[in-house]
Amino acid sequence: MPFDKLVEHTRPTRDRHTPPLIQTVFTTMEGTDPAPLHTATMRPLPIDEGVAKFDLTVQVQVEPDGVRVLFDYACDLYEPATMAELADSYRALVAAVLAEPDRPLSTVVAVTAAQRERLADALIASPVPVPPGDLGCVPRLVTETARRQPDALAVVDGTGAITYRELDEWSNHLAHQLLHHGARPDHPVAVSLPPGTPAITAMLAVLKAGAAYLPIDPTAPPARRHHLITNSAVTILITQDPHDTDTPPGVVALAPHPAPATATATPPPLDVHPEQVAYVIHTSGSTGTPKGVMVPHRALTNLVHWHLNAHPTGPGQRHGQVASLGFDAAIWEIWPALVSGATLHIADPADRLDPAALHDWLVREDVTRTFLPTPIAEAVLRLPTPSTSRLRTIFTGGDALTTRPSAHAPYTLFNIYGPTETTVAVTVGPVRPDGVHRPDLGVPIAGARIHLLDADLQLVPPGAPGEVCVAGDVVSRGYLNKPGQTAERFLPDPYGPPGSRLYRTGDLCRLRTDG
What we know:
Elements: E1 8-9, E2 24-29, E3 35-37, E4 40-42, E5 56-63, E6 66-74, H1 80-99, H2 113-123, H3 138-148, E7 153-157, E8 160-163, H4 164-180, E9 188-192, H5 197-208, E10 212-215, H6 222-231, E11 236-239, E12 252-254, E13 277-282, E14 292-296, H7 297-310, E15 318-321, H8 329-340, E16 343-346, H9 355-364, E17 369-373, H10 374-381, E18 393-397, E19 412-417, E20 427-431, E21 443-444, E22 448-453, E23 466-472, E24 478-479, H11 483-489, E25 490-492, E26 501-509
Parallel strand pairs: 1-6, 2-5, 7-16, 9-10, 9-11, 11-12, 15-16, 17-18, 18-19
Antiparallel strand pairs: 3-4, 5-6, 7-8, 13-14, 14-24, 19-20, 20-21, 22-23, 23-26, 25-26
Helix pairs in contact: 3-4, 3-8, 4-5, 7-8, 9-10
């Protein structure tokens, strides 16, 4: 029967910084018929004490016409909408158990049809429109941008600037050289260059050659560089010093500038399949051995087209490039800028970990949008940005955000969430200057499907914590040369189309009542 009463009691406001002590008391009351007591008659009467004795009390009362369930809760801890969701979930749980009493409780889904529909509306985003075949892939789109605006500045670093024509021709030269040395689909080509124009050009050249680029920090310890190269079965390395004795045997080392004898400005033939690997990014290895994540063109294309639809940009805009090239946020910084025709400004490595110097650089270079890792972003948010600054958008991610922007800041701050395995960004949301709670993670980007699941991969109801499991066009192909670990984390999606997969992030989230 429906839960026909939801009782709300008040209690003194709790300090919001003190974690609530959640106590649940279940009481069963039977025998509600009037009982004779000599000449008197006794019957139960409702009592409203005006205060909740516990954070949450659930009373189950058996009556002649059914069962009455009352929820008595502290209003300073729970919103009415949250308790209504809890009541709906409890009703769904009871109905499922009554329908199949022998079914293990862990397999029961306490989600109503209405809740399931609301979960889908909030956590499953529509796909982004993408041209068919290789027409929407990044290397082709950058080439088209170069044809439209050959003389516009494409990349600016501490040593100078190159135009889109120069970027296109230089990358064509190097792509032909890569093909000559055996570059082929789904095989990584290592790019071990410092942030700058040569690195951007080399990565574009690898994409044009149909291979996958693998960024490696040239300042990383030799043991890590050697591990990334050998573990990824790299046969071609683009490096500043092709004669470096640290290059593993059997690996061809190339300079980012091709020899004049092999140079040709003609673009190589391009036939990219959406499932071909575009790049390989290694995880930090903080929870074990670093794993190379294989991201296909399908996922990269989705990210770029979503970004350009949700955050339009183009010629005249200046994008900052701040993240390490081995950090997947650099993917988001580089390719939407070059596909749209904006100018990519590359921060000096010496300024990247100095918030004050980086803030001055953003203002001095008239950067209009940039990504900042969370710790750096929180320090920059506390610095006064002059009203004359052209900075209008800051994206941040990589850690839990606790700081909000000033109401006087000329820019909008967006908080992003997304593991490397799901192509940089899965959810994005604006962070308002006002607010008492930690900034949320926003909503899914186009092409992403999020399921909040319990340990048995069952849907959890709105408001309940569940593991973030990500499906859709954002999911990568898995870990390079690690089929066992891929099978552990990348599973068939029981809630998606046949053949689709999801990635178990291990992170816990909940869907708030406001979506």
